[in-house]
């Protein structure tokens, strides 16, 4: 599923700051969403952002803006905070050359990974709705939890519809124990880098090592499909997943701090 944004510079064409409406989140939450790029100096942020915020606020409805910056850029974070931004999440961009991947756990004879079919999607959507709780959408008190759950469910549905590689991880043991345990959604063309976009494990199978087995099976599958490098973005709020990726051999390429700004209809004071 392609996520393409149309950025517009401000306060003038070619200016140091830019914003883009995020239509898919706006459609879901029912309020405008914007991504900001703050590539200019702190002085540009302090001068231009208050006017942009007022312009959005004058629309008379709530809105949410977000931006991603280097965690070490304390001056920029302070400038954004002065306008009303608050930190919600630090993410790590991590990667692993697949030639270096080595399984930690023995292959599980009682489970398999296979491409999802249309009939699998409802079960995978249900897992997506119950999996996520520590991401920036669930942690921001201005956003309804049930809609944040639905956001990830829609991600699975749209990914399957748009031709991304969606996989089912299922038990193949005794008949009474058979069933879908989790899913993995990946993007990218074989021969290059694969984006491990989204994964989830059903509640009943958590804390039993299923997640580690599924992640390993997915990396093996990616290698067999011809990918050379696996990469993903993971939130530092999710310690279990960060630790799992580190055990699997992933290394950190970069880190980003995401900050939100909730804009209400009340005047700026």
Quick take:
The protein has helices spanning 23-29, 42-57, 74-83, 121-131, 136-139, 145-161, 210-225, 239-247; strands at residues 8-10, 17-21, 33-38, 63-69, 86-97, 111-115, 165-171, 179-187, 193-201, 229-235, 251-263. It has 269 residues and is α+β, with helices and mostly antiparallel strands. The model has no long low-confidence stretch (mean pLDDT 90).
Features of this protein?
269 residues, 8 helices, alpha+beta
Helices and strands in order:
Elements: E1 8-10, E2 17-21, H1 23-29, E3 33-38, H2 42-57, E4 63-69, H3 74-83, E5 86-97, E6 111-115, H4 121-131, H5 136-139, H6 145-161, E7 165-171, E8 179-187, E9 193-201, H7 210-225, E10 229-235, H8 239-247, E11 251-263
Parallel strand pairs: 3-4, 9-10
Antiparallel strand pairs: 1-2, 2-3, 4-11, 5-10, 5-11, 6-7, 7-8, 8-9
Helix pairs in contact: 2-3, 4-6
């Amino acid at each position: 599923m392609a996520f393409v944004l149309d950025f517009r510079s401000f306060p003038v064409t070619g200016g140091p700051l830019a914003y883009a409406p995020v239509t898919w989140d706006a459609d879901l939450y029912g309020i405008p969403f914007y991504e900001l790029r703050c590539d200019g100096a702190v002085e540009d942020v302090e001068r231009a952002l208050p006017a942009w915020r007022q312009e959005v606020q004058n629309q008379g409805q709530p809105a949410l803006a977000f931006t991603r910056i280097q965690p070490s850029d304390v001056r920029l974070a302070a400038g954004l905070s002065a306008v009303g931004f608050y930190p919600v999440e630090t993410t790590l961009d991590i990667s692993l050359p697949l030639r270096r991947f080595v399984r930690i756990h023995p292959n599980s004879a009682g489970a398999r990974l296979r491409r999802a079919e249309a009939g699998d999607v409802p079960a995978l959507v249900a897992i997506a709705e119950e999996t996520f709780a520590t991401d920036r959408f669930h942690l921001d008190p201005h956003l309804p939890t049930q809609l944040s759950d639905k956001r990830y469910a829609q991600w699975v549905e749209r990914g399957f519809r748009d031709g991304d590689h969606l996989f089912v991880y299922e038990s193949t043991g005794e008949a009474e124990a058979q069933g879908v345990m989790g899913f993995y959604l990946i993007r990218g063309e074989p021969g290059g880098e694969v984006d491990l976009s989204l994964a989830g494990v059903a509640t009943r199978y958590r804390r039993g090592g299923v997640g580690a087995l599924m992640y390993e099976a997915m990396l093996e599958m990616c290698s067999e499909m011809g990918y050379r490098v696996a990469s993903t973005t993971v939130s530092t709020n999710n310690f279990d997943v960060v630790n799992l990726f580190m055990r699997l051999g992933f290394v950190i390429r970069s880190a980003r701090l995401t900050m939100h700004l909730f804009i209400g209809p009340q005047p700026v004071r």
